[in-house]
Amino acid sequence: MTGQRRTARSRQIVDGFTVLLALILLAVAWPTLHLTHKVPPAAAPFIAGFAAFPILLVRVNPQLGWAVSAGSALLIALAVPNQPGNTLPFQVVHIVALFALVLAVTVFAPVRTVAVVWVTTALLMATTMARTGDSFAESGFGWPLAVTGLVAFGLLVRWVALSRRALQRSEEETELERARRAILEEKARIARDLHDVVAHHMSMVVVQAQTAPYRIDGLSADARAEFESIGSGARAALNEVRGLLGVLRSDGELPEHAPQPRAADVPGLLDAAQRAGVPLIRSVDGALDAVPETTGLALYRIVQESLANAARHAPGAPVEVRIAVGPDLTVSIANDRSTAARPSDQPSTAGTGITGMQARAAAVGGVLTATPRPDGGFHVLARLPLAPA
After folding, report:
1. What is the mean pLDDT of residues 240-264?
2. Is Membrane among this UniProt entry's keywords (predicted)?
């Protein structure tokens, strides 16, 4: 925003200076026109205007300004007679404005336009200035050489400006690359920490659950099924963690590797919870395949977190999950009060699960409420839009 204001301020200064210069040129051209050319007093302001006012277009449209200035110069040279002793076909003010417009065209216009302006102006000066041939300036070579030198100077200024602009772009790209590299390094560090802390312990859970039936004698069928369920849940979670690690370690060019559960994966999540021993009552009304990906991801995470909270804070209590796909997606997860005693090493702590679920619902334009029930249970209700918010 500051750069834009500075640029606008610079343009205002340039425009103000251009208007002031045009007025000065007009103030010089009008009173002195009768000294150089034989013109009626009524035509003097118009001829002086053609000499001075085209410079007003030097920033807005220098090609048009040059065309008006060059055309009026040729017309004046052919139609307006000079005063005795004056060898210039048009005023010095006209030459100053014409050369200023040639320089502006050289700096800002396309190269083809620059070539046309250069050749045309050189021919104009060569044909109108060669009156007597007594000096080099009037011999047909001096003024075209002056135009050529002016165009060469303009091309040099143009090259310097383009070089500085390219250098600035290169510096900006370098800064962006440096910032991007810093982000990637931070993501890689987080991935290492996550791998060391979470993936290692979850891998140990999987190994212990799979080897428990071989290490412990006399396990019942229910106990073996319980260990198998623990292993399956831990493996699924470990796969998600590995996918997340892949996203953190990548540079963002492979989004297909990101763990993105969909709404259609929710029944599998409910099956896993039932295998883990959660008394589950489930109801799905509508086609989950029609749910958009972002809304489906929010639905999956909300159900996942709600089931985990119910299993943690109300072990053994029945959990009722109802999902309805209509104009909006409605999900309700309610659990009764637990009848089992909480283990002594598992205190009741206030975590961030509910806050995270509310944030996920809000991210897709939905709303989530989580309230205790009168019977001691808990109820999570979320409404998520099917259309993008």
Report:
1. 64
2. yes
